[in-house]
Amino acid sequence: MNRKIEVTASLEVIPIGLLTELESKLIASAKEILESAHAPYSKFMVGAAVLLEDGEIFVANNQENVSFPVGICAERAVLSYVMGNFPNLKPLKIAIAARRMNEKGYAYVTPCGMCRQTINEYEVKFGGKIEILMLNGKEEVLKADGIEQLLPFRFHNLHL
Q1: Do residues 53 and 89 lie in contact, with contact meaning Cβ atoms separated by under 8 Å?
Q2: Phi, then psi, of 153 in degrees rounded to 5
Q3: 79-86: which pairs have CB atoms within 8 A and are 24 or more residues apart?
Q4: Any catalytic annotation for residue 75?
Q5: Strand pairing partners for 140?
Q6: DSSP H or E segment with residue 56
Q7: pLDDT for res 93
Q8: pLDDT of amino acid 157
Q9: Of 75, 123, 131, 140, which residue is the catalytic one?
Q10: What is the phi-psi region of residue 139: left when phi exceeds 0, alpha when psi lies from -120 to 50, beta otherwise?
């Protein structure tokens, strides 16, 4: 007998002016660090900022390499750094911002599949959700309360 598994996902859309002070700081940090991204091939600069449970914020940006796919996304770069250096501190929030080099406005961005699975890994490790804040081109932020909103059938869910 066949059965059907249905999943619903939702994102909260928040105007920039209605973000909390902490959310605004995370988005601003992601916007600032994307400006120093190494993106000579795609011309698509991405910045990410992570808030750890001790209140510390860390940032990183995408780093491309002519030998594709050797580069690394901003989200995985910052998560790898904090988990390598602070392996016992839970990441609470991650903010992501992107911009094309030749444009002034910000691009709509969500984490790629590898980054989504990486976020999932740390949700599993720490037994809790990581809030994801994604700046869009309308100066709004899309807010996911955890990775299941972006990756409903995560790798660890294959036992369904």
Answers
A1: yes
A2: -110, 70
A3: 79/50, 79/118, 79/119, 79/122, 80/118, 82/50, 82/52, 82/58, 83/122, 86/52, 86/56
A4: yes
A5: 15
A6: none
A7: 98
A8: 53
A9: 75
A10: left
